[in-house]
Amino acid sequence: MIFSILEHILTHISFSVVSIVLTIYFLTFLVNLDEIIGFFDSSDKGIIITFFCITGLLFTRWIYSGHFPLSNLYESLIFLSWAFSIIHIISYFNKKQKNHLNAITAPSAIFIQGFATSGLLNKMPQSAILVPALQSQWLMMHVSMMILGYGALLCGSLLSIALLVITFRKVGPTFWNKNIKTKNLLNEFFNFNILYYINERNSILLQQNINFSFSRNYYRYQLIEQLDYWSFRIISLGFIFLTVGILSGAVWANETWGSYWNWDPKETWAFITWTIFAIYLHIKTNRNVRGINSAIVASIGFLLIWICYFGVNLLGIGLHSYGSFTLN
Amino acid sequence: MILTLNPKILYFSKAHHLQSPLSRPYPYFYRPRNISLITNCNLQKPQDGNKSNRSITKTISLSDSAPPVTEETNGDVSGSADRSGGNSGGGGKEGLGFLKRIPRKVLSVLSNLPLAITEMFTISALMALGTVIEQGETLDFYVQKYPEDNPVLGFFTWRWITTLGLDHMYSAPIFLGMLVLLGASLMACTYTTQIPLVKVARRWSFMKSDESIKKQDFADSLPRASVRDLGVILMGDGYEVFMKGPSLYAFKGLAGRYAPIGVHIAMLLIMVGGTLSATGSFRGSVTVPQGLNFVMGDVLSPIGFLSFPTDTFNAEVHVNRFTMDYYDSGEVSQFHSDLSLRDLNGKEVLRKTISVNDPLRYGGITIYQTDWSFSALQVTKDGEGPFNLAMAPLKINGDKKLYGTFLPVGDTNAPNVKGISMLARDLQSIVVYDLEGKFAGIRRPNSKLPIEIDGMKIVIEDAIGSTGLELKTDPGVPIVYAGFGALMLTTCISYLSHSQVWALQNGTTLVVGGRTNRAKNDFPDDMNRLLDQVPELIKTSVD
Asked: Which segments cross the bilayer (chain A) (predicted)?
């Protein structure tokens, strides 16, 4: 009884804190950022509170259910939300470089938690008993690695989607449509400066020819580069987790089902996801290919993760049917 | 390989000899622990001595055991990657020699990255299709599901499925062919692209001109600094540092360059292991009531043409006991089978209680606990018996099992014989119905509590379960596991960045340049942090 009360409290705290954080994010987008810089900082602290709440929640479930809290979809969603918050915290403490991860992780965390706690999945929050096949130490390694991998890959592919959105969005009507005359000139200027930037890699020179449109283009370019870089790094990290997760799952399957690979739908989709992100990493090795191509692959990967994580469970087919659920 | 130094570089090399008389004609190292490298340099020593005399041309031998010191003329390592890729035949002589006979054209086509990416996409698409189309059904099923008069998406009918073998996707020729092609691409890519790249990365290349250093991704010049201080600081940050005169070359995370090769080799290992599993395995499953035995060879049936039985197949398995654990809610928590292995002489060689997740392994054969069944019910009627009533599965809907049996009462030869029905979901409790089919009660086996039906005293003595075992041999597992281990390790190592730093002392000015292959955004920050530590020289060392 006391455990379920504790669990309720922790769920509500984490959910409301993340909602507040998200509100702060939207505020900082709407209002001038400099005025409420303190707000921005507080949102990071909010995520840290959320992180501790979810950790507490998971531990509570672990203690009273007696097994690692990753036996059904609700628990794995909470764990995914936890993975997002831990990615956020890592990027928060790694303050050497400003990156845009926190704009991805916080909303992701709240959406996933909101989905997990919403009435959509009733019956799910109850901790289920473990079927014989799940009673193994591999459960901890396999599922946690898979969920961490999903979390990191989702983050990375969301960054890539952001890159695509920024790349294909019209740069803003202010100077593109106003006078077409300067358009070509600006274009050339922009290209020239990018080349100049690449050659010299010296940001000081940019201050010499500061110019509104140029600096805007430059920041856009820089933002795209940053997004490209961070999505690459995070997808590489997620790829490691996914690899370890799939392989530990294969070893576990060899202990339980008698074969390390059964072409079970979930396995197959995890392998498809793995292949897509392997393609992403291969495209990345080629310097001549622009970031857009790899970003398109990463956004395909985003869809595939959801198919793998949710779609297969929704159908409730195959050997991985423990996490299956029915929508009410 | 003969490198001709152009006059410009010659000028620089002369200049540094003039500027720093203290610099030695052979490289020396900050790290004495790197013994192999030191011997290597001693070997190079006479050659370097010659070089100071005739520095226009010099011969650099490419050997695999000792990475030689080369002088990069243009500072573009990736440029020379293609060059050494062109004449890398000498390096592949061990083991990969047979690949030389394959026409170079085929190799270059296979190692083409877009082709490999297309292959991966195709494999993914086929696998996805395999999860959408129901696998392993009868022809009638597909004819009904994908009728010709109403094709899915306007063209997809059951004829596609039967022609392409999509009903057994993961063993269909089209799928296996793609996998073979991907394997060939993996090998070709490793051979033509990755190994040459590593060869270049292994070569320590000093840069002899400011321009080539400044061309790097990161470049900076320190007005008053010493190259030796930089060397010490780089070493403190985990770099391997090599110095020759005014030039410095340092690298870190070379494993990050090697690891992608390891990833490819691991993938190939897994493919080889998978092939061996598919061609050399035996499989079989058996349901054995408690107390009975079976010979393993009778159960196992070969999968492929490489499946050869061994002596262990003659061993006999005896099921001593089969039990089930239950949660408080009544659901099954675990199955246990106490198995004894007996050899041809009937001697027990191994005894183990297996459960799900804890199989028995003996002589290459693995016995898994996978299933269970209700074999028989032992009852006594009015003290007579015990009778063994065979339980029949009544309705199997998913995992929910139901077994039933019937104890005839009275004249068994009568046309409509009446009796007591007993139903059970598991070995825990038996539901008993009387002659009229009405509910009479629930009894647990072993409780010895009689149930009275029409004056008859029925005692359920015991419930005998049978264990569902799965047996297999798989010669591919060790190879596949080796591949798994290698893949995990090399994928992790691949995350590391291979960073290279070059520096050149030019008077009192130190020109530093560097680049990295993965953590590109962190690298300038790391370098700036390191360069901040380089002490400023108060008095110039070259005076």
From this structure: 12-33, 45-64, 76-94, 141-168, 230-253, 268-283, 295-319
